[in-house]
Specification:
Layout: H1 10-28, H2 36-43, H3 47-74, H4 77-97, H5 101-118, H6 121-132, H7 139-188, H8 205-218, H9 220-239, H10 243-248, H11 257-273, H12 275-278, H13 282-303, H14 306-333, H15 339-365, H16 370-376, H17 379-396
Amino acid sequence: MTLSPARVPASGVRRLTATLYGYSFLDDFVLLYPVYALLFADTGLSLWQISSLFALWSITGILLEVPSGVWADAVSRRLLLWLGPLLTAVGFGLWVLLPSYWAFAVGFVLWGAGGALGSGALEALVYDELDRLGASDRYARVMGRARAARLMGTMASAGLAGPVIALGGYPAVGAASVLACLLTAAAASRFPEHRVRPENGGDSWATTLRTGLAEVRRDRSVRGALLLIPAVAAVWGALDEYTPLLVRDIGVAEATVPYLILLIWAGVTAGSLLTGPAERLGTRGLAALLAGAALALAVGAAAGTTAGIALVGLAFGGFQLAEVLADVRLQHRIDESRRATLTSVASLGTELGTVATFGVYALLGTDLAHSTVFAVLAIPYLVTALALARSRAATVRP
């Protein structure tokens, strides 16, 4: 039974959200992020070797995404949330202590595994704890702020990486990154977890996965909410990797590129902070949001100006907002016992969609300018918006 809003224990919500925001900031406050490609190149790796490392990272996440979600439902979600950063810390330590291709490869496998352990488990833990406190209606606002905390961690690490590497080189940046991972694990250990599991240990791994997938097949609303997450998250998540190339093509100086990237991140942060009020949009409003963001992306990318980059930031902010709202729709529709499992299935769809977008971008970018590719890849969002609008019309039609 959930509590009425008037009886929501404020101290419990404050503890949960404070832990979540600190965990989210520290999880992305990794000074190696802006410079690890430079570390690989300076170690003597070829472009092919660097690309193979990125592929290994993605493959690890894809293979472990769903099993880790099932494990989170079968055991403790908090356990996975503090174990993941510890694996990542070991990987980063290997990078700076034994810089070589194989050390980098092992580090990426550990990093991918650490990320997979937290994917699904975090959303499930936060939603269930809020629900226990009678505050599940705050989930959108809370997760939006958590996304903003992550972005602030990313921006802070980008700002500090330069001075730290100038003072102590890659070892100093690596040590700071390992420390950030250890602090993330410490923050994760502070998460409350009151989920009660059966005394006999509950369902087996295979049973949990099978019942979760059966729910997706049986319930059309769950299936639609699950598919919406990769439809919203995959394309813009991949495009984010190419924004420096888009910015450089408008003709600005190299030194100006980071500032315009920061402008785009500011738009994403703003989108994260608007999730609370935006939860009232409904299906039709979400469709309009996606369509508007898609148009802003196409027009902004094609403009080839600084103002156009600002429009791209606005579009990314809209996509970030829509991504959180899609997660909210899924969490409201799935059962507690399979929450991490199905959230991880949605994340797997996002990973696969992102990899597919990388392939499409490489194919289109062979003959087209970056601005044109960005504009073309706005089309999937218009299709998603149309599908949402049609599903809403079918629902209200007598």
